[in-house]
UniProtKB/TrEMBL annotation:
InterPro entries: 5peptide_repeat, Pentapeptide-BTB/POZ_domain. It comes from the Bacteria. It comes from Actinomycetospora chlora. It holds the Pfam family Pentapeptide. This is Pentapeptide repeat-containing protein.
Length: 239
């Protein structure tokens, strides 16, 4: 049988390697002492890479659903396409990392360091982003689906979000002061106890307006049309 780790011993650029059969300890050790790695179209399904240092790596269309990267160092990593669906990135360092067109559905980023991290056009349905850590969480989300995502108590003050779907996401207790939402969806989003003073929601789809909506959106900036919808939900006539 061919050694699944053989490709990693040839050089730092590895193409079309299936590493699912590699010994977990040897795989972590090999990746940790080499690099920066370029992995193209490699397969890492359900591999345990907890604690591995992949600083500066490029993961191009890598398939790694349910991969475990708990506490991994992914500083400056670029992930382009591919799948990290169900990945465990708990407490991982993602400083300066860039994710583009990646499937991160159901990924766990609990306690992850997200300083200057960028997510563009990613599928992040059901992702868990609670407990994000950093003195200043400054990650960017653009064109992503965060439907059903968990962002309870997140500090997102002053963010600029464009083309982000937050439908049915949990933003309860989140700090959303001064955020600006452009072409975003808040359909069914849980905003209970969220702080929305100065939040510009004029570019957001607020979904169904109910009599409870005014209290939830207290302090937010809405458009004339949105205000009219709120008034109608309260039984007021808008002339």
């Amino acid at each position: 049988m061919t050694d699944p780790l053989a490709a990693l011993h040839v050089g730092t650029e590895v193409v079309d390697a299936d590493l699912t059969g590699a010994d977990a300890d040897e795989l972590r050790e090999t990746l940790g002492r080499g690099g920066p790695w370029t992995l193209r179209r490699c397969v890492l399904d359900e591999r345990d890479l907890s604690g591995v240092d992949l600083t500066g790596a490029l993961l191009d269309r890598v398939r790694a659903p349910a991969v475990r990267l708990r506490g991994a160092v992914l500083d400056g990593v670029r992930v382009e396409g591919g799948s990290l669906a169900g990945a465990d990135l708990t407490d991982a360092d993602l400083t300066d990392a860039h994710f583009s067109g990646v499937d991160l559905s159901r990924a766990r980023l609990v306690g992850a360091r997200l300083t200057d991290t960028t997510f563009r056009d990613c599928r992040m349905i059901g992702a868990d982003l609670t407990g994000m850590r950093s003195l200043a969480v400054t990650f960017t989300v653009d064109g992503c689906s965060l439907a059903l995502a968990r962002l309870a108590d997140a500090s997102l003050r002053g963010w600029r979000l464009e083309r982000v779907d937050l439908s049915d996401a949990d933003l309860s207790g989140a700090d959303l002061r001064d955020v600006v939402l452009t072409d975003c969806a808040l359909r069914g989003t849980d905003l209970t106890r969220a702080r929305l003073i100065g939040a510009d929601l004029r570019g957001a789809d607020l979904g169904e307006i109910t009599p409870e909506t005014p209290a939830v959106l207290r302090g937010a900036i809405v458009s004339t049309a949105q205000a009219a919808d709120v008034c109608r939900a309260l039984g007021l006539q808008v002339l």
